[in-house]
Inverse folding.
């Protein structure tokens, strides 16, 4: 769809990213493509043996393959340890993020006490509050809302309609997709006589470097201390992060996950889509939570954790659900039996 | 709440939509209403026998009923095969979407290289990027963001603050509710030494004709190929569609559902609210997924599929959950027993 | 992080909120803080005995404690029945919401037939439709979209990019977080010959007083009657409320919950995060739904209800899931056995 501006020879790719060249190094690559759609100026990759047939029939001008496939195809190719990772690096080289167009759009609004770096791009209808700071090379898409005293680190890119509440901090090189909300009030308070007392949230959200946030994801500010997202965290769309959470470095969170207030997630975790983690728990480094799993207590050891009700044809599910209900009655019956019975009076 | 501009006689409704008139055809209808609230200028419908009592006592000026109820009430009525569908057509006739007010609001921003059809309505604070194309009769609500080279088909309506990323395509007669995001980056990449390599997403989102998208729903663009939403798909609010998904024609998806990357859903499916479909699977045409069900593998046959943990009073649930845990231990014990045992040394 | 403008003496707090003062009443408090971070001008609270150790070592200038801890510490303190609730009141006193800066920003757009009270604050890029009404002391953050004939009650605060559709009503003192959408079309319609007929939604959303709505939460308008949110309801982020729902007074709903169309929830309920309630059911007052629980039928009695698949280490889960599948087969086998068997022909 996009046609890239620059082409690269295979030998240039190898010079940048390593790997072993097989075939002519002067082959020019303009774009990346999947095996089944690639043309002569495109490069594809083969990561799993399941795709060998597709690789044999591909029209790609070159391939990226693993050692075990080094001599399986005679097409110009680069042999590497991890073809998928290598392919992504080539894709990023061929499709660089556009440079910011420095300057503030005449239809944007910047508070006189805000600071915007000269190389930053501020699109139409952006608003920037008092005391906010926008770093060099930042791109703010149309309709972004930067609250008072918020800070956006160098070279971060905010797509359209992103909201950063007052005092929140975004690190360098962030990518924030449209509609995400950083720093909304947390759901903190207490019931008094059946009425909700709202806790004013005076903490911030503090986001490290190289963080990516998905579209319409929401991250609440801390009640008193901060909500913290460490370096390199990647979050997908429609995720909820509660107040005072801490998400460890380089953890990935897939779409629709929800993490309740004051949960602390370790680094290098993989949190599956639509999974839920309750509040006030600690999850160790390197934990992998399966999709749609509900984590109801802390996890101390790395590993993979799962809790999914197996789906089936509807009537079969109905039968299983009935049996599961019986189990809880059985448990009750067993518990009843194990209790000391009161002696019957007057009989015998 | 709304008072409609025009009234219709029963005979005019029958002339337009069919059905058999019983009673005076000159009765005038101004609005639709439920049985229990309808007045003399309003029409109500009776779809299920459970509502016969309400129908007997209704103040509605006219009724839409099924054949089996044709002579049950003496109120002016239209007898049809499907009263609910008929009622919706009457409601749509009485409550037409407002016509676009042609023109670009002086507080909107349109790139000089964008094309906006003369009959399109562009509200305040809309931004339209370079090379974008807006068709005849389109309505863009305030704060919509139309990316560079995006296309919005004729007579589509985008409510407030909708974001369409660069290069994405929306078909004709779409209805897109506030805050939905089309074309955000997919969650694609790979881990290399514990660090996330982000795949630049160069695919688009391509949306067919007559599609409806709910508020704050997000649809990711494809990594290399496109994410495709076929004609007539209806999506509710807060839904996530991952990169490279394909949603078949006339499939409906209820709120809070999540469909992970590269899943292909057939046509005419009904995907329940808060259900989850994992990535890279194929779901056949005509599949009905129950609410909150997690689909962890492909489905080849039409039918209804379910996986919901039955809820109950909390203590009862606790007992069932304990029994369910024992089941997994039992399974383990059985597996252990079926293993060949090493001979005990030195004994006997 | 925030430094508050005013300080209060302990005796002033007691005069306002009650409680019993122990120690010098002239101690000045500038801010609230957690026990482990509080300094000499800050007040902390002790709600649970688990935190007694932290309270003993705190640097807080004063404490709020329960009766049972009245004499456990010699630090200046206020003894109260509910330290958490008391602490929140002090926090709210020290951190008042900022006063609206009266007036309409020159980069906002207000329809000439809309009414905006003189004391209301309308930020940049807000749009307000024909016939809309904005009450005294309202604050509309940047990018809010107020539809035609919508009403925003006195002293309500809408954060950035909130959308209120035409004709919807928001009560007094609401807090609406960024990106929430009120009044989108409900997912109502019917299939006719495999095609979706869309029901035009002519009902409204009507929101009572003192309601709080989280970021990116969506509430659909009614099909014919209204969707109703009663006084004092508190909703977290990314919640979906379907068309024609009614949420009873002072009910709290945690993040990512979804309530399907026409469900009626009682007052004083607690609806857990990521829980789901199906449509057309009635939930009694005082019901507590656990997180991630799927409520598939109405609930008549107050109490706590749960349905969560217990998570475990992945392989253990796999064994349990296999056993659960067998249960449904067992159920089937039992059902088969209980059927009258056809006589075998020709044998015996």
């Amino acid at each position: 769809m996009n046609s890239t501006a620059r082409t690269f020879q295979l030998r240039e790719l190898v010079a940048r990213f390593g790997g072993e060249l097989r075939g002519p190094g002067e082959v020019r690559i303009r774009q990346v493509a999947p095996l089944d759609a690639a043309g002569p100026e495109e490069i594809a990759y083969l990561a799993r043996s399941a795709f060998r047939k597709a690789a044999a029939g591909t029209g790609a001008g070159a391939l990226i393959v693993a050692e075990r496939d080094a001599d399986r195809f005679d097409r110009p190719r680069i042999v590497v340890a991890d073809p998928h990772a290598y392919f992504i690096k080539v894709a990023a080289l061929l499709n660089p993020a556009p440079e910011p167009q420095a300057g503030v759009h005449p239809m944007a609004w910047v508070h006189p006490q805000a600071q915007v770096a000269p190389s930053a791009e501020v699109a139409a209808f952006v608003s920037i509050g008092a005391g906010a700071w926008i770093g060099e090379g930042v791109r703010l898409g149309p309709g972004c809302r930067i609250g008072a005293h918020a800070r956006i680190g160098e070279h971060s890119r905010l797509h359209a309609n992103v909201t950063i509440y007052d005092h929140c901090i975004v690190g360098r090189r962030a990518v924030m997709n449209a509609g995400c909300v950083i720093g909304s009030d947390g759901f903190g308070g207490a019931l008094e006589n059946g009425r909700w007392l709202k806790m004013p949230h005076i903490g911030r959200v503090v986001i490290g470097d190289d963080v990516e946030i998905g579209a319409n994801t929401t991250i609440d500010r801390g009640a008193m201390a901060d909500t913290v997202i460490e370096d390199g965290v990647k979050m997908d769309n429609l995720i909820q992060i509660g107040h005072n959470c801490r998400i460890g470095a380089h953890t990935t969170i897939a779409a629709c996950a929800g993490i309740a207030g004051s949960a602390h997630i370790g680094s290098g975790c993989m949190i599956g889509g639509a999974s839920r983690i309750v509040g006030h728990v600690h999850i160790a480094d390197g934990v992998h939570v399966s999709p749609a799993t509900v984590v109801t207590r802390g996890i101390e050891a790395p590993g993979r954790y799962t809790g999914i009700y197996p789906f089936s044809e509807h009537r079969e599910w109905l039968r299983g659900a009935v049996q599961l209900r019986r189990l809880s009655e059985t448990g009750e019956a067993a518990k009843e039996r194990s209790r000391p019975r009161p002696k019957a009076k007057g009989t015998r």
In short: The radius of gyration of chain A is 27 Å. Confidence is low (pLDDT under 50) at residues 341-348 of chain A. Residues 314-338 of chain A form the longest helix (25 residues). Chain A touches chain C through 66 residues (CB under 8 Å).
